[in-house]
Amino acid sequence: MPKVTREQTNARREEIINACAKLYETTSFKDLTLKDIGKATSFTRTSIYNYFQTKEEIFLALLEQEYDLWNEDLVAILKQNEHLSVDEFADKLACSLEKRERLLKLMSMNHYDMESSSRIEKLTEFKCAYGKSLQLVTSCIQKFFPSIATNKAQSFIYIFFPFMFGIYPYTYVTEKQREAMKNAKADYVFMSIYEITFSCIKNLLS
Prior knowledge:
Layout: H1 6-24, H2 34-39, H3 55-80, H4 86-98, H5 101-109, H6 111-116, H7 120-144, H8 150-171, H9 175-183, H10 193-205
């Protein structure tokens, strides 16, 4: 049997993740199966087990990929700007998350299941990407707002990252949810990803 190269391994892993991402656009996490993902790849379904043992591991890898993409934008914010006001920083960070709808959806809808059903090595790989996000946002705060006390900078991180879990369900609501809120006469203001993120950042830093 010919030996699979590292490049082939990475390419197949990437193909599985991309197939999962495409299917997730039209199929819910609950309804999507390993069999569905296998059918969308160019190799046999059983071959998936050489890379991922559960569908949750595939989704966790997809979430890791989303964090990596967000990290690229965070690095760009750090490198391309010497000074930013609160409004300018809130704008750039809000814009970076506005591009990451899939990241926000995954973390709000299925995060616990993905982590609890993945092997420790897969979870560790994901946590490296997540940890880099924490470090990069912290670096942004330290660079652009050097006068902010250390405890306030830490509070920003402890509030903002949990806040991210609520962005998607707050900004993407079904017609049924809208109707229910209307029937309940609830005072609910519908906001976009950008609007709610910008508002949160500005309030935390003001």
